[in-house]
């Protein structure tokens, strides 16, 4: 619709907050009836530029099951949010959070994934968290599956490769929708669903010893089952809690062509299509035609039940959320490669990199917001964005993280530019407001938070919470609805 004016600021109901995942903050991995998850059988890495979360096979799982400690499995201990949630939520409220994104660990509710009855202690814990948030008028944004499916389902039926996992997951989703009806306005199905093409951490499928061709077949089949489960969960939510909204979640990696050469432009377009394929299915409700050629050329055959496509078409998501950390460069003839544990593609000479090799590109966030709004015309939500860095605690107990403030400031400025461009942006939950265990490397020393947690990579420390300089800065940003970004 043509208008002579355009928005000059974030909307009044903009949702400012932060995001975490159960397996990275909760700890309490073996208490109150919780079952073990895929995240808790992945050993910490010895190389911070290598992701260890997919280096898993039956032998390594058996070794993990036999190990009853958290020494080599840091996601088992997290930062003990399980026992500190009141303290942590109070700090979030002090910053002025409007929303807090967290995940419900499936195995806290159904320890084996498909138990007949839910674990009441698990439901009670999340009810206490949600009620504590309500005390401060903080809205919950809940992720249903954030890289932490019950390991029992991997051992029994190879995770999401089995269609039986759909039924188990949707028993879980129905249970939490009914329990928290009226209390959770926003839900997400699968965190960064596209990373299922990387393997085990997102699918629970053991395929590390398979050929690349076999891996692709297994992973896309597992992802199809997740698509169907997501659509069924959306159907359940609309029937159980019609006022609540369901979103999907993508790891967005905007791809630039390495040169103006048309073959490089086409190579970048192909990479972007493979990234956006997942939101195409979940937001548009159908498999896009451009993937037919990719599947055929890679000999991938998606086995579907008779009504799968009808379910996908009838129950697309209400909004689209995504993480944004970096952009990548693609050339038909690849040059120098980025050496980062989640960075793929070529190195962009115009960008700086974090200590973990992630290319920092605030303007790329505006580019991707504008492109995704154009493509989908559904509300967008930036639910992860942040800087992992080695923070130093000073002798007087402070953390001066001006580099984090600068990083976040630049990204928020570009979000504001995108809203002025006409993008309907719901909110921003930076990753992660409190220091937590790194997803990719299981380090503690890769810190994102506004709140410093006194714990080292070996799990030693008091677990005291300490406000960083960025804590006070973000409080000011929220109070001004993104207008005051000064130090």
From TrEMBL:
GO terms for molecular function: beta-glucosidase activity. SUPFAM superfamilies: (Trans)glycosidases. One of its GO terms (cellular component) is cytosol. The active site is at 384 (nucleophile). It comes from the Bacteria. GO terms for biological process: carbohydrate catabolic process. Keywords: Glycosidase, Hydrolase. PANTHER family: 6-PHOSPHO-BETA-GLUCOSIDASE ASCB-RELATED (PTHR10353:SF122), GLYCOSYL HYDROLASE (PTHR10353). Belongs to the glycosyl hydrolase 1 family. This is 6-phospho-beta-glucosidase. It comes from Loigolactobacillus backii.
């Amino acid at each position: 619709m043509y208008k002579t004016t355009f928005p000059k600021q974030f909307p009044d109901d903009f949702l400012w907050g932060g995001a975490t995942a159960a397996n990275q903050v909760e700890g309490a991995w073996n208490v109150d009836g919780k079952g073990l998850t895929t995240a808790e059988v992945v050993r910490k890495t010895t190389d911070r530029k290598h992701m260890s979360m997919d280096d898993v096979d039956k032998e390594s799982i058996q070794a993990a099951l036999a190990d009853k400690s958290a020494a080599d499995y840091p996601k088992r201990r997290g930062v003990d949010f399980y026992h500190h949630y009141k303290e942590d939520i109070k700090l979030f409220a002090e910053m002025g959070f409007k929303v807090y994104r967290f995940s419900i660990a499936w195995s806290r509710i159904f320890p084996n994934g498909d138990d007949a009855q839910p674990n009441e202690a698990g439901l009670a814990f999340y009810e206490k968290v949600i009620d504590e948030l309500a005390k401060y008028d903080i809205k919950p944004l809940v992720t249903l599956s954030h890289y932490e499916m019950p390991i029992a389902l991997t051992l029994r039926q190879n995770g999401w490769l089995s269609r039986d996992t759909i039924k188990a997951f949707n028993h879980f989703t129905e249970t939490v929708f009914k329990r928290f009806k009226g209390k959770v306005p926003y839900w997400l199905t699968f965190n960064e669903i596209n990373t299922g093409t990387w393997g085990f951490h997102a699918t629970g499928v053991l395929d590390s010893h398979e050929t690349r061709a076999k891996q692709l077949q297994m992973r896309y089949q597992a992802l199809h089952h997740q698509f169907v489960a997501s659509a069924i969960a959306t159907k359940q939510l609309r029937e159980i809690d019609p006022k609540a909204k369901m979103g999907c979640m993508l790891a967005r990696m905007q791809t630039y062509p390495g040169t103006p050469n048309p073959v490089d432009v086409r190579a970048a377009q192909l990479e972007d299509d493979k990234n956006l394929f997942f939101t195409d299915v979940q937001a548009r409700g159908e498999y896009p035609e451009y993937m037919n050629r990719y599947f055929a050329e890679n000999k991938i055959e998606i086995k579907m039940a008779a009504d799968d496509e009808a379910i996908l078409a009838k129950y697309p998501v209400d909004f689209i959320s995504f993480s944004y950390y970096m952009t990548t460069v693609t050339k038909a003839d690849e040059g120098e490669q980025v050496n980062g544990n989640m960075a793929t593609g070529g190195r962009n000479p115009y960008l700086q990199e974090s200590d973990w090799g992630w290319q920092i590109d605030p303007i790329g966030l505006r580019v991707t917001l504008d492109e995704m709004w154009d493509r989908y015309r559904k509300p967008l939500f930036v639910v992860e964005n942040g800087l992992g860095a080695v923070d130093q605690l000073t002798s007087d107990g402070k953390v001066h993280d001006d580099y984090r403030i600068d990083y976040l400031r630049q990204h928020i400025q570009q979000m504001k530019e995108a809203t002025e461009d006409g993008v309907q942006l719901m909110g921003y939950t930076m990753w992660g407001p409190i220091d937590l265990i790194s997803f990719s490397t299981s380090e503690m020393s890769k810190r994102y938070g506004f709140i410093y947690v006194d714990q080292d990579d070996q799990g030693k420390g008091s677990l005291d919470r300490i406000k960083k300089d960025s804590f006070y800065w973000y409080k000011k940003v929220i109070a001004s609805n993104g207008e005051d970004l000064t130090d």
